[in-house]
Write a structure and sequence with these properties.
nine-stranded mixed β-sheet; 9 strands
């Protein structure tokens, strides 16, 4: 069993994959890096040359690749993040530390800091709308249901059911977290500009909204909504009381 692992879902990320892997090793030299990869470019070759383990998957979408990787990876703690350079590698040690206490650590770009130009206006609107809709329909306090950086303990990612193939992945994870009552925190993060060309389209936001509704209905029927998560900011720890805004100590 591996102690700590990072999972990067990848499809043609050769422009930035070396920088992303380097940034991860710079904050945790001993972490094991996995790629859930369906690339047709040099992404897997570059990653393997830097010590990452490539798990080749069918080209069926991000969610399919991640679900396949969850079945194949055995790590006590696992952090998933997009391989485009948008998510902060320097928060990886913080999330691993939080996983000593929590089964799942979500991240929020909405409560954090989004660099100018990092998120197109249509994407930001879709994210805000979908997250607000989720808070209403699921009666939760999660603020960013489409963030691609999430930490898991072994028992959590091994018991999360992912049935979609594409970018509906994150909303499926949120409904699984709420439905299965995993002990969860949400950490505010920075979000930056990506390497290469964006792959997500506006229609993917619509698909996520539909998937969220479909996955929420069974939870509503059995009264399994209303799950609250602990909120952490980017600054230093200011309180140890549960279910309030607080921060991780450096």
């Amino acid at each position: 069993m591996i102690d700590r692992a990072v999972l990067l879902p990848t499809y043609n990320e050769e422009l930035g994959i070396a920088k992303v892997i380097e940034s991860i090793y710079s904050v945790d030299p001993d972490v094991k890096i996995f790629l859930a990869d369906s690339s047709t470019d040099r992404t897997p070759e570059i990653a393997e040359s830097m010590g990452a383990l490539v798990l080749k998957t069918e080209k069926r979408g991000k969610a399919y690749s991640v679900a396949d990787a969850f079945r194949r990876i055995d790590a006590e703690k696992l952090i998933m993040l997009d391989a485009d350079g948008t998510y902060p590698s320097d928060q990886i040690p913080t999330i691993f530390k939080m996983l000593d206490e929590y089964e799942v650590v979500l991240t929020s770009r909405i409560r954090g800091r989004i660099e100018p130009g990092a998120m197109p206006l249509i994407n930001r609107f879709t994210n805000l709308f979908t997250s607000a809709y989720a808070r209403i329909i699921l009666n939760t306090n999660v603020t960013d249901v489409m963030s691609g950086m999430i930490g898991f303990r072994y028992n959590a990612y091994k018991n999360i059911e992912i049935k979609s193939n594409r970018f509906e992945l994150e909303v499926e994870i949120i409904t699984e977290v709420i439905g299965k009552r995993f002990k969860t925190a949400e950490l505010a993060i920075r979000f930056g500009k990506r390497y290469g060309t964006p792959k997500i389209e506006w229609i993917d936001g619509f698909r996520s909204l539909c998937k969220l509704t479909k996955r929420a209905l069974p939870l509503l029927k059995r009264g399994a909504v209303g799950w609250k998560v602990d909120m952490y900011e980017l600054e230093r720890l200011i309180s140890r009381k549960p279910n309030i805004h607080r921060s991780i100590e450096e």
